[in-house]
Amino acid sequence: MLNIYKLEQHIEEQMKASHVPGLALAIVKDQEVMYARGFGVTSVEDGGLAVTPHTLFPIGSVTKPLTGTMIMRLVEQGKLDLDRPVKEYLDGFMLSESGAAERVTLRMLLSHTSGLPTRYSPFGPRNPEALEKHVKEEISQYRLVAPPGKLYSYSNPGINLAGYVAQVVAGMSYTELMQSLVFDPLEMKRTTFDPLVAMTYPVAQSHDPQSDGTMRVEHRFGENAANYPSGYAMSTVLDLANFAIMHMCGGDFHETHILSPEAVIQMHAQQAQSYTVSGSGYGITFMIYAYKGLQLVGHDGDINTFLCKFVMVPDARTAIIIIVNRYEIDPTSLTKQILDQLFDLPAETPQIQEIEPERSIWPQYVGTYLGPFGLTTISVEEDQLMLDFNGQKAALQASRKNLYFSRHPESEETYSVYFLPEETGLVQYVMVEEFRFKRIKRESLSAPDPAIWPAFVGTYRDFDTLTISIKDDSLYGYSAQLGQATVLVALDRTRFITEAGLVEFLIDESGKVSALAMREHSTYYPKVG
Questions:
Q1: Which of 31, 160, 368, 517 is most deeply buried (CB count within 10 A of its CB)?
Q2: Burial of 213 (C-beta count, 10 Å sphere; 0-12/13-18/19+)
Protein backbone atom coordinates (compact mmCIF):
# COMPACT_ATOMS: atom_id res chain seq x y z
CA MET A 1 0.00 0.00 0.00
CA LEU A 2 1.31 3.42 -0.95
CA ASN A 3 2.03 5.68 2.02
CA ILE A 4 1.36 9.12 0.50
CA TYR A 5 2.60 11.06 3.53
CA LYS A 6 5.98 9.30 3.58
CA LEU A 7 6.28 9.57 -0.20
CA GLU A 8 5.69 13.32 -0.17
CA GLN A 9 8.04 13.76 2.77
CA HIS A 10 10.75 11.81 0.94
CA ILE A 11 10.32 13.85 -2.25
CA GLU A 12 10.51 17.15 -0.38
CA GLU A 13 13.60 16.06 1.54
CA GLN A 14 15.34 14.92 -1.64
CA MET A 15 14.49 18.13 -3.47
CA LYS A 16 15.82 20.26 -0.62
CA ALA A 17 19.04 18.24 -0.29
CA SER A 18 19.67 18.31 -4.05
CA HIS A 19 18.56 21.92 -4.73
CA VAL A 20 15.91 20.71 -7.19
CA PRO A 21 13.44 23.55 -7.90
CA GLY A 22 10.40 21.67 -9.20
CA LEU A 23 8.85 18.22 -9.64
CA ALA A 24 5.47 16.92 -10.79
CA LEU A 25 4.12 13.41 -10.18
CA ALA A 26 1.02 11.52 -11.32
CA ILE A 27 -0.01 7.92 -10.58
CA VAL A 28 -2.67 6.22 -12.70
CA LYS A 29 -4.78 3.20 -11.76
CA ASP A 30 -7.19 1.71 -14.31
CA GLN A 31 -8.80 4.72 -16.03
CA GLU A 32 -8.32 7.25 -13.24
CA VAL A 33 -5.56 9.42 -11.85
CA MET A 34 -5.30 8.13 -8.27
CA TYR A 35 -2.70 10.73 -7.25
CA ALA A 36 -1.24 13.90 -8.75
CA ARG A 37 0.74 16.68 -7.16
CA GLY A 38 3.37 19.28 -7.91
CA PHE A 39 6.30 20.09 -5.65
CA GLY A 40 8.47 23.18 -5.52
CA VAL A 41 8.50 25.99 -8.06
CA THR A 42 8.82 26.47 -11.81
CA SER A 43 11.68 28.94 -11.35
CA VAL A 44 13.94 30.10 -8.53
CA GLU A 45 13.72 33.68 -9.84
CA ASP A 46 11.11 36.20 -8.65
CA GLY A 47 9.61 33.65 -6.31
CA GLY A 48 8.52 31.41 -9.15
CA LEU A 49 5.14 29.76 -9.52
CA ALA A 50 4.18 26.70 -7.55
CA VAL A 51 4.46 23.53 -9.65
CA THR A 52 1.11 21.78 -10.09
CA PRO A 53 0.03 18.69 -12.09
CA HIS A 54 -0.95 21.17 -14.83
CA THR A 55 2.55 22.71 -15.12
CA LEU A 56 4.22 22.26 -18.51
CA PHE A 57 7.66 20.64 -18.67
CA PRO A 58 9.80 19.69 -21.69
CA ILE A 59 9.62 15.87 -21.71
CA GLY A 60 12.55 15.01 -24.00
CA SER A 61 12.45 11.52 -25.47
CA VAL A 62 9.08 10.69 -23.93
CA THR A 63 8.04 12.45 -27.15
CA LYS A 64 9.05 9.29 -29.03
CA PRO A 65 6.08 7.10 -28.00
CA LEU A 66 3.79 10.02 -28.79
CA THR A 67 5.28 10.09 -32.30
CA GLY A 68 5.04 6.31 -32.53
CA THR A 69 1.36 6.42 -31.63
CA MET A 70 0.67 8.97 -34.36
CA ILE A 71 2.46 6.78 -36.92
CA MET A 72 0.57 3.66 -35.80
CA ARG A 73 -2.69 5.52 -36.37
CA LEU A 74 -1.57 6.18 -39.95
CA VAL A 75 -0.60 2.51 -40.29
CA GLU A 76 -4.10 1.48 -39.22
CA GLN A 77 -5.56 3.94 -41.73
CA GLY A 78 -3.59 2.12 -44.45
CA LYS A 79 -1.41 5.13 -45.25
CA LEU A 80 1.83 3.64 -43.91
CA ASP A 81 3.38 0.18 -43.69
CA LEU A 82 5.93 -0.57 -40.97
CA ASP A 83 7.88 -2.98 -43.18
CA ARG A 84 7.98 -1.00 -46.40
CA PRO A 85 11.32 0.74 -47.14
CA VAL A 86 11.04 4.45 -46.35
CA LYS A 87 12.67 5.22 -49.70
CA GLU A 88 9.38 4.22 -51.33
CA TYR A 89 7.67 7.09 -49.50
CA LEU A 90 10.36 9.70 -50.18
CA ASP A 91 11.36 10.47 -53.75
CA GLY A 92 15.11 10.58 -54.15
CA PHE A 93 15.88 9.76 -50.51
CA MET A 94 19.39 8.42 -50.00
CA LEU A 95 21.64 7.39 -47.11
CA SER A 96 25.41 7.62 -46.98
CA GLU A 97 25.98 3.90 -47.62
CA SER A 98 24.95 2.28 -50.90
CA GLY A 99 21.78 0.19 -50.65
CA ALA A 100 20.94 1.28 -47.09
CA ALA A 101 18.01 3.51 -48.06
CA GLU A 102 16.41 0.56 -49.85
CA ARG A 103 16.57 -1.53 -46.65
CA VAL A 104 15.57 0.86 -43.87
CA THR A 105 11.91 0.50 -42.85
CA LEU A 106 9.66 2.38 -40.43
CA ARG A 107 9.87 -0.60 -38.07
CA MET A 108 13.65 -0.22 -37.97
CA LEU A 109 13.41 3.53 -37.39
CA LEU A 110 10.84 3.15 -34.60
CA SER A 111 12.80 0.37 -32.87
CA HIS A 112 16.29 1.94 -33.24
CA THR A 113 17.65 -0.79 -35.52
CA SER A 114 18.19 1.31 -38.67
CA GLY A 115 21.91 1.88 -38.09
CA LEU A 116 21.52 5.67 -37.96
CA PRO A 117 23.64 7.39 -35.27
CA THR A 118 22.38 8.89 -32.01
CA ARG A 119 22.88 12.63 -32.80
CA TYR A 120 21.25 15.29 -30.67
CA SER A 121 21.05 19.02 -31.35
CA PRO A 122 19.39 20.87 -28.44
CA PHE A 123 19.26 24.18 -30.29
CA GLY A 124 18.43 24.67 -33.93
CA PRO A 125 16.04 26.24 -36.44
CA ARG A 126 12.48 27.12 -35.48
CA ASN A 127 10.91 27.29 -38.93
CA PRO A 128 8.43 24.58 -40.09
CA GLU A 129 10.70 23.58 -42.98
CA ALA A 130 13.46 22.52 -40.61
CA LEU A 131 12.42 18.84 -40.42
CA GLU A 132 12.50 18.42 -44.20
CA LYS A 133 15.89 20.13 -44.43
CA HIS A 134 17.21 17.93 -41.61
CA VAL A 135 16.21 14.79 -43.49
CA LYS A 136 17.49 15.84 -46.90
CA GLU A 137 20.70 17.64 -45.95
CA GLU A 138 21.80 16.01 -42.69
CA ILE A 139 20.35 12.54 -42.14
CA SER A 140 21.14 11.57 -45.71
CA GLN A 141 24.83 12.29 -45.00
CA TYR A 142 25.18 10.58 -41.62
CA ARG A 143 27.57 7.68 -41.46
CA LEU A 144 25.76 4.54 -40.29
CA VAL A 145 27.00 2.96 -37.07
CA ALA A 146 25.94 -0.53 -38.23
CA PRO A 147 24.16 -2.12 -41.21
CA PRO A 148 20.34 -1.66 -41.18
CA GLY A 149 18.70 -4.32 -39.02
CA LYS A 150 22.00 -5.46 -37.51
CA LEU A 151 21.59 -4.29 -33.92
CA TYR A 152 19.81 -1.97 -31.50
CA SER A 153 21.44 1.47 -31.35
CA TYR A 154 19.44 4.43 -30.04
CA SER A 155 18.89 7.06 -32.74
CA ASN A 156 17.16 10.42 -32.54
CA PRO A 157 17.52 11.01 -36.31
CA GLY A 158 15.73 7.70 -36.93
CA ILE A 159 12.62 8.95 -35.13
CA ASN A 160 12.90 12.33 -36.87
CA LEU A 161 12.99 10.55 -40.23
CA ALA A 162 9.91 8.50 -39.30
CA GLY A 163 8.07 11.70 -38.36
CA TYR A 164 8.99 13.24 -41.70
CA VAL A 165 7.71 10.17 -43.60
CA ALA A 166 4.36 10.58 -41.84
CA GLN A 167 4.33 14.28 -42.74
CA VAL A 168 4.94 13.58 -46.42
CA VAL A 169 2.41 10.75 -46.70
CA ALA A 170 -0.36 12.55 -44.80
CA GLY A 171 0.21 15.89 -46.51
CA MET A 172 0.17 17.68 -43.14
CA SER A 173 2.98 19.06 -40.99
CA TYR A 174 4.28 16.82 -38.24
CA THR A 175 2.92 19.12 -35.52
CA GLU A 176 -0.53 19.24 -37.17
CA LEU A 177 -0.58 15.44 -37.31
CA MET A 178 0.32 15.18 -33.64
CA GLN A 179 -2.40 17.65 -32.68
CA SER A 180 -5.03 15.92 -34.81
CA LEU A 181 -4.19 12.27 -34.17
CA VAL A 182 -2.83 12.30 -30.60
CA PHE A 183 -3.23 15.46 -28.52
CA ASP A 184 -6.84 16.37 -29.39
CA PRO A 185 -8.43 12.89 -29.13
CA LEU A 186 -6.57 12.21 -25.87
CA GLU A 187 -7.58 15.58 -24.41
CA MET A 188 -3.92 16.49 -23.91
CA LYS A 189 -5.00 20.12 -23.79
CA ARG A 190 -1.72 21.73 -22.86
CA THR A 191 0.74 19.49 -24.72
CA THR A 192 2.51 21.39 -27.47
CA PHE A 193 5.72 21.81 -29.44
CA ASP A 194 5.36 25.58 -29.72
CA PRO A 195 7.19 27.65 -27.05
CA LEU A 196 4.86 30.57 -27.87
CA VAL A 197 1.90 28.42 -26.87
CA ALA A 198 3.73 27.00 -23.85
CA MET A 199 4.47 30.48 -22.49
CA THR A 200 0.74 31.15 -22.13
CA TYR A 201 0.68 28.48 -19.38
CA PRO A 202 2.83 27.99 -16.29
CA VAL A 203 5.97 26.32 -17.63
CA ALA A 204 8.98 24.99 -15.71
CA GLN A 205 12.40 26.46 -16.39
CA SER A 206 15.79 24.79 -16.75
CA HIS A 207 18.34 25.50 -14.01
CA ASP A 208 22.13 25.51 -13.60
CA PRO A 209 24.07 25.42 -10.31
CA GLN A 210 26.01 28.38 -8.95
CA SER A 211 29.27 28.10 -7.01
CA ASP A 212 27.43 28.07 -3.68
CA GLY A 213 25.22 25.17 -4.75
CA THR A 214 22.07 27.21 -5.34
CA MET A 215 20.32 27.25 -8.71
CA ARG A 216 19.88 29.91 -11.36
CA VAL A 217 17.54 29.88 -14.35
CA GLU A 218 19.06 28.98 -17.70
CA HIS A 219 17.71 31.78 -19.88
CA ARG A 220 17.79 29.83 -23.10
CA PHE A 221 14.89 27.55 -23.92
CA GLY A 222 15.69 24.36 -25.81
CA GLU A 223 14.18 24.56 -29.30
CA ASN A 224 14.92 22.72 -32.54
CA ALA A 225 12.06 22.14 -35.00
CA ALA A 226 14.20 19.66 -36.95
CA ASN A 227 14.18 17.35 -33.93
CA TYR A 228 10.55 17.70 -32.85
CA PRO A 229 9.60 14.04 -33.46
CA SER A 230 12.38 12.66 -31.26
CA GLY A 231 12.30 14.92 -28.23
CA TYR A 232 10.68 18.35 -28.14
CA ALA A 233 7.14 17.99 -26.84
CA MET A 234 6.16 19.92 -23.72
CA SER A 235 3.53 18.28 -21.57
CA THR A 236 2.07 17.85 -18.10
CA VAL A 237 1.83 14.78 -15.90
CA LEU A 238 -1.97 14.88 -16.30
CA ASP A 239 -1.81 15.00 -20.10
CA LEU A 240 0.64 12.09 -20.08
CA ALA A 241 -1.70 10.26 -17.71
CA ASN A 242 -4.35 10.36 -20.47
CA PHE A 243 -1.80 8.90 -22.89
CA ALA A 244 -1.04 6.10 -20.42
CA ILE A 245 -4.74 5.33 -19.87
CA MET A 246 -5.23 4.83 -23.61
CA HIS A 247 -2.24 2.52 -23.92
CA MET A 248 -3.31 0.47 -20.90
CA CYS A 249 -6.92 0.16 -22.09
CA GLY A 250 -6.30 -1.52 -25.42
CA GLY A 251 -6.18 1.70 -27.42
CA ASP A 252 -9.37 3.27 -26.07
CA PHE A 253 -9.54 6.53 -24.14
CA HIS A 254 -12.84 6.67 -22.31
CA GLU A 255 -15.36 6.56 -25.22
CA THR A 256 -12.82 7.39 -27.95
CA HIS A 257 -11.12 4.66 -30.03
CA ILE A 258 -7.52 5.64 -30.79
CA LEU A 259 -5.74 2.38 -31.67
CA SER A 260 -6.74 -1.23 -32.05
CA PRO A 261 -5.70 -3.64 -29.27
CA GLU A 262 -3.47 -5.37 -31.84
CA ALA A 263 -1.62 -2.12 -32.58
CA VAL A 264 -1.06 -1.47 -28.87
CA ILE A 265 0.22 -5.01 -28.35
CA GLN A 266 2.63 -4.55 -31.24
CA MET A 267 3.94 -1.27 -29.82
CA HIS A 268 4.49 -2.92 -26.42
CA ALA A 269 6.10 -6.06 -27.86
CA GLN A 270 9.87 -6.34 -28.09
CA GLN A 271 11.04 -5.52 -31.61
CA ALA A 272 14.72 -5.39 -30.70
CA GLN A 273 16.59 -6.74 -27.71
CA SER A 274 18.93 -4.37 -25.93
CA TYR A 275 21.19 -7.20 -24.81
CA THR A 276 20.91 -7.03 -21.02
CA VAL A 277 20.65 -9.73 -18.35
CA SER A 278 17.28 -8.28 -17.34
CA GLY A 279 15.87 -9.16 -20.78
CA SER A 280 15.06 -5.55 -21.65
CA GLY A 281 14.37 -4.44 -25.18
CA TYR A 282 12.65 -1.88 -27.35
CA GLY A 283 9.22 -2.05 -28.96
CA ILE A 284 7.64 0.48 -31.32
CA THR A 285 8.96 3.67 -29.62
CA PHE A 286 8.65 2.07 -26.18
CA MET A 287 11.25 0.68 -23.78
CA ILE A 288 10.37 -2.82 -22.56
CA TYR A 289 11.89 -4.07 -19.32
CA ALA A 290 11.23 -5.92 -16.07
CA TYR A 291 11.45 -4.98 -12.41
CA LYS A 292 11.10 -7.56 -9.66
CA GLY A 293 8.77 -9.67 -11.78
CA LEU A 294 6.72 -6.76 -13.16
CA GLN A 295 6.68 -6.25 -16.92
CA LEU A 296 7.13 -2.53 -17.60
CA VAL A 297 6.57 -0.47 -20.73
CA GLY A 298 7.57 3.17 -20.97
CA HIS A 299 10.24 5.69 -21.87
CA ASP A 300 12.74 8.08 -20.32
CA GLY A 301 13.22 11.69 -21.34
CA ASP A 302 16.27 13.90 -20.88
CA ILE A 303 16.59 17.41 -22.33
CA ASN A 304 18.66 20.29 -21.00
CA THR A 305 18.27 19.92 -17.20
CA PHE A 306 14.82 18.23 -17.41
CA LEU A 307 14.15 14.56 -16.78
CA CYS A 308 10.91 12.72 -17.47
CA LYS A 309 10.02 9.19 -16.40
CA PHE A 310 6.98 7.53 -18.02
CA VAL A 311 6.33 3.98 -16.80
CA MET A 312 3.35 1.69 -17.30
CA VAL A 313 2.54 -1.71 -15.81
CA PRO A 314 0.04 -2.71 -18.50
CA ASP A 315 -1.06 -5.95 -16.81
CA ALA A 316 -2.07 -3.98 -13.71
CA ARG A 317 -3.26 -0.87 -15.58
CA THR A 318 -0.96 1.23 -13.45
CA ALA A 319 1.30 4.08 -14.58
CA ILE A 320 3.72 6.51 -12.97
CA ILE A 321 4.77 9.82 -14.54
CA ILE A 322 7.49 12.01 -13.00
CA ILE A 323 8.99 15.20 -14.45
CA VAL A 324 11.69 17.35 -12.83
CA ASN A 325 13.40 20.55 -13.94
CA ARG A 326 16.77 19.64 -12.43
CA TYR A 327 18.25 16.16 -12.72
CA GLU A 328 19.81 15.88 -9.26
CA ILE A 329 16.81 13.73 -8.33
CA ASP A 330 16.71 10.35 -10.05
CA PRO A 331 13.12 9.66 -11.27
CA THR A 332 14.03 6.01 -11.85
CA SER A 333 14.86 5.45 -8.19
CA LEU A 334 11.70 7.27 -7.11
CA THR A 335 9.61 5.20 -9.54
CA LYS A 336 11.00 1.97 -8.10
CA GLN A 337 10.12 3.09 -4.58
CA ILE A 338 6.53 3.76 -5.66
CA LEU A 339 6.30 0.41 -7.46
CA ASP A 340 7.67 -1.38 -4.39
CA GLN A 341 4.88 0.08 -2.26
CA LEU A 342 2.05 -0.20 -4.79
CA PHE A 343 2.72 -3.88 -5.47
CA ASP A 344 4.27 -4.89 -2.13
CA LEU A 345 7.43 -6.04 -3.91
CA PRO A 346 10.33 -7.77 -2.14
CA ALA A 347 13.13 -5.55 -0.87
CA GLU A 348 15.82 -7.39 -2.80
CA THR A 349 16.10 -7.74 -6.57
CA PRO A 350 16.44 -11.39 -7.67
CA GLN A 351 20.04 -12.43 -8.21
CA ILE A 352 21.29 -13.07 -11.74
CA GLN A 353 21.74 -16.75 -12.45
CA GLU A 354 25.23 -17.66 -13.63
CA ILE A 355 26.00 -20.46 -16.09
CA GLU A 356 29.20 -22.17 -17.11
CA PRO A 357 30.70 -20.09 -19.95
CA GLU A 358 31.37 -21.48 -23.41
CA ARG A 359 35.13 -20.90 -23.34
CA SER A 360 35.70 -22.25 -26.86
CA ILE A 361 34.24 -19.05 -28.39
CA TRP A 362 36.17 -16.61 -26.20
CA PRO A 363 38.85 -16.11 -28.90
CA GLN A 364 36.09 -14.57 -31.07
CA TYR A 365 35.48 -11.98 -28.35
CA VAL A 366 39.05 -10.93 -27.56
CA GLY A 367 40.02 -7.52 -28.92
CA THR A 368 39.58 -3.76 -28.64
CA TYR A 369 36.28 -1.97 -29.29
CA LEU A 370 35.52 1.75 -29.61
CA GLY A 371 32.15 3.35 -28.93
CA PRO A 372 30.45 6.60 -27.89
CA PHE A 373 31.42 6.07 -24.26
CA GLY A 374 35.06 5.19 -24.82
CA LEU A 375 37.27 2.15 -25.20
CA THR A 376 36.49 -1.44 -24.24
CA THR A 377 39.07 -4.21 -24.27
CA ILE A 378 38.20 -7.89 -23.89
CA SER A 379 40.88 -10.33 -22.81
CA VAL A 380 41.33 -13.74 -21.16
CA GLU A 381 43.44 -13.87 -18.02
CA GLU A 382 44.01 -17.10 -16.11
CA ASP A 383 40.93 -18.76 -17.58
CA GLN A 384 38.76 -15.71 -16.83
CA LEU A 385 37.06 -13.45 -19.40
CA MET A 386 37.92 -9.85 -18.52
CA LEU A 387 36.45 -6.47 -19.44
CA ASP A 388 38.58 -3.32 -19.42
CA PHE A 389 36.26 -0.33 -19.80
CA ASN A 390 38.16 2.94 -20.01
CA GLY A 391 40.89 1.57 -17.76
CA GLN A 392 38.62 -0.08 -15.20
CA LYS A 393 38.94 -3.87 -15.21
CA ALA A 394 36.28 -6.35 -14.16
CA ALA A 395 35.74 -10.09 -14.44
CA LEU A 396 32.82 -11.24 -16.59
CA GLN A 397 30.37 -13.94 -15.55
CA ALA A 398 28.21 -15.80 -18.06
CA SER A 399 24.42 -15.46 -17.93
CA ARG A 400 23.50 -16.89 -21.33
CA LYS A 401 25.40 -17.70 -24.49
CA ASN A 402 27.19 -14.52 -25.62
CA LEU A 403 25.68 -12.60 -22.67
CA TYR A 404 27.82 -11.78 -19.64
CA PHE A 405 27.69 -9.42 -16.70
CA SER A 406 30.04 -7.78 -14.24
CA ARG A 407 29.55 -6.08 -10.90
CA HIS A 408 31.01 -2.72 -9.99
CA PRO A 409 33.58 -3.41 -7.24
CA GLU A 410 32.24 -0.61 -5.01
CA SER A 411 28.51 -0.23 -5.71
CA GLU A 412 27.81 -3.87 -6.67
CA GLU A 413 25.79 -2.45 -9.59
CA THR A 414 25.45 -4.96 -12.41
CA TYR A 415 26.54 -4.25 -15.99
CA SER A 416 25.52 -6.38 -18.98
CA VAL A 417 27.99 -7.22 -21.74
CA TYR A 418 26.74 -8.84 -24.93
CA PHE A 419 28.86 -10.14 -27.80
CA LEU A 420 26.89 -9.90 -31.04
CA PRO A 421 27.77 -13.10 -32.93
CA GLU A 422 28.71 -13.09 -36.59
CA GLU A 423 27.98 -15.96 -38.96
CA THR A 424 31.72 -16.55 -39.19
CA GLY A 425 34.84 -14.98 -37.73
CA LEU A 426 35.47 -12.50 -34.97
CA VAL A 427 32.76 -10.63 -33.10
CA GLN A 428 32.55 -7.09 -34.50
CA TYR A 429 30.20 -5.48 -31.97
CA VAL A 430 30.07 -5.58 -28.18
CA MET A 431 27.13 -4.05 -26.31
CA VAL A 432 27.91 -2.74 -22.82
CA GLU A 433 24.68 -1.80 -21.04
CA GLU A 434 22.91 -1.20 -24.39
CA PHE A 435 25.75 0.96 -25.72
CA ARG A 436 27.45 -0.13 -28.93
CA PHE A 437 31.20 -0.65 -29.27
CA LYS A 438 32.77 -1.66 -32.60
CA ARG A 439 35.96 -3.66 -33.03
CA ILE A 440 39.03 -1.64 -34.01
CA LYS A 441 42.71 -2.33 -34.41
CA ARG A 442 44.50 -0.75 -31.47
CA GLU A 443 47.40 0.20 -33.72
CA SER A 444 45.04 2.29 -35.86
CA LEU A 445 44.82 4.89 -33.08
CA SER A 446 47.21 7.81 -33.46
CA ALA A 447 49.55 8.64 -30.59
CA PRO A 448 48.44 11.31 -28.08
CA ASP A 449 50.13 14.67 -28.72
CA PRO A 450 50.23 16.95 -25.64
CA ALA A 451 51.98 19.60 -27.75
CA ILE A 452 48.67 20.51 -29.43
CA TRP A 453 46.60 20.54 -26.22
CA PRO A 454 46.93 24.33 -25.75
CA ALA A 455 44.89 24.71 -28.96
CA PHE A 456 42.04 22.83 -27.26
CA VAL A 457 41.91 25.23 -24.30
CA GLY A 458 38.92 27.55 -24.36
CA THR A 459 35.15 27.77 -24.02
CA TYR A 460 32.64 25.66 -25.97
CA ARG A 461 28.92 26.36 -25.80
CA ASP A 462 25.64 24.78 -26.81
CA PHE A 463 23.00 23.70 -24.27
CA ASP A 464 25.87 23.58 -21.74
CA THR A 465 29.03 25.68 -21.43
CA LEU A 466 32.21 23.61 -21.33
CA THR A 467 35.55 25.11 -20.33
CA ILE A 468 38.72 23.23 -21.30
CA SER A 469 41.92 23.94 -19.37
CA ILE A 470 45.36 22.45 -18.68
CA LYS A 471 46.56 21.80 -15.15
CA ASP A 472 49.51 19.71 -13.98
CA ASP A 473 50.08 18.35 -17.50
CA SER A 474 46.50 17.09 -17.73
CA LEU A 475 43.54 18.33 -19.75
CA TYR A 476 40.37 19.16 -17.80
CA GLY A 477 36.80 19.96 -18.80
CA TYR A 478 34.41 21.93 -16.60
CA SER A 479 30.62 21.73 -17.14
CA ALA A 480 28.64 24.79 -16.05
CA GLN A 481 25.44 22.74 -16.09
CA LEU A 482 26.85 20.08 -13.77
CA GLY A 483 29.03 22.45 -11.80
CA GLN A 484 31.96 20.04 -11.84
CA ALA A 485 35.24 19.29 -13.62
CA THR A 486 36.53 16.02 -15.05
CA VAL A 487 39.86 14.92 -16.43
CA LEU A 488 40.21 14.14 -20.15
CA VAL A 489 42.25 10.99 -20.72
CA ALA A 490 43.95 10.97 -24.12
CA LEU A 491 42.85 8.19 -26.47
CA ASP A 492 44.69 9.47 -29.53
CA ARG A 493 45.69 12.82 -31.01
CA THR A 494 42.28 14.54 -30.89
CA ARG A 495 40.03 12.14 -28.96
CA PHE A 496 39.73 11.79 -25.20
CA ILE A 497 37.84 9.60 -22.74
CA THR A 498 35.78 11.31 -20.01
CA GLU A 499 33.14 10.31 -17.48
CA ALA A 500 30.52 11.70 -19.88
CA GLY A 501 31.79 9.73 -22.88
CA LEU A 502 34.12 10.11 -25.82
CA VAL A 503 35.22 13.68 -26.60
CA GLU A 504 36.76 14.76 -29.92
CA PHE A 505 38.21 18.16 -30.78
CA LEU A 506 37.39 19.13 -34.38
CA ILE A 507 40.01 20.95 -36.42
CA ASP A 508 38.88 22.94 -39.47
CA GLU A 509 40.67 23.36 -42.81
CA SER A 510 42.64 26.35 -41.50
CA GLY A 511 44.05 24.24 -38.68
CA LYS A 512 42.02 25.93 -35.93
CA VAL A 513 39.97 24.04 -33.36
CA SER A 514 36.36 24.81 -34.29
CA ALA A 515 34.27 22.61 -32.01
CA LEU A 516 34.12 19.82 -29.47
CA ALA A 517 32.09 16.73 -30.33
CA MET A 518 30.67 14.34 -27.72
CA ARG A 519 30.00 10.61 -28.03
CA GLU A 520 30.91 10.04 -31.67
CA HIS A 521 29.50 13.40 -32.80
CA SER A 522 26.13 12.90 -31.12
CA THR A 523 26.33 16.52 -29.88
CA TYR A 524 28.49 19.50 -30.89
CA TYR A 525 29.81 22.42 -28.88
CA PRO A 526 31.18 25.20 -31.10
CA LYS A 527 34.26 26.95 -29.73
CA VAL A 528 33.32 30.47 -28.64
CA GLY A 529 36.42 31.64 -26.82
A1: 160
A2: exposed
